[in-house]
Amino acid sequence: MKIAPIFDPEKRRETPQAEQVDLHIIFLIGTIFWLILAIIFGSFFLIQGIYGDRFMICIWGIIIGVLGLIWELYNRHLYRLVALMQQ
């Protein structure tokens, strides 16, 4: 392990460039995943009365995913601008 970069900033490597990412796709895929699981566990809950706690976890996952999509819609220009500025 080299200690020189800790004491001498000129010997440090350059930081990697930020990548352009599309959080809309990531939030959408995660929300669809939680929706599928909510359908599965919801059917178990309605038919047999089991897995109610797992069904509620899925509902919260959907709520958080939708909130993430709304956040991404209003802040897309900000996180893309940060990646452009670092290039």
Automatic annotation (TrEMBL):
<feature type="transmembrane region" description="Helical">
    <location>
        <begin position="54"/>
        <end position="74"/>
    </location>
</feature>
<feature type="transmembrane region" description="Helical">
    <location>
        <begin position="21"/>
        <end position="48"/>
    </location>
</feature>
<keyword id="KW-0472">Membrane</keyword>
<keyword id="KW-0812">Transmembrane</keyword>
<protein>
    <submittedName>
        <fullName>DUF2530 domain-containing protein</fullName>
    </submittedName>
</protein>
<keyword id="KW-1133">Transmembrane helix</keyword>
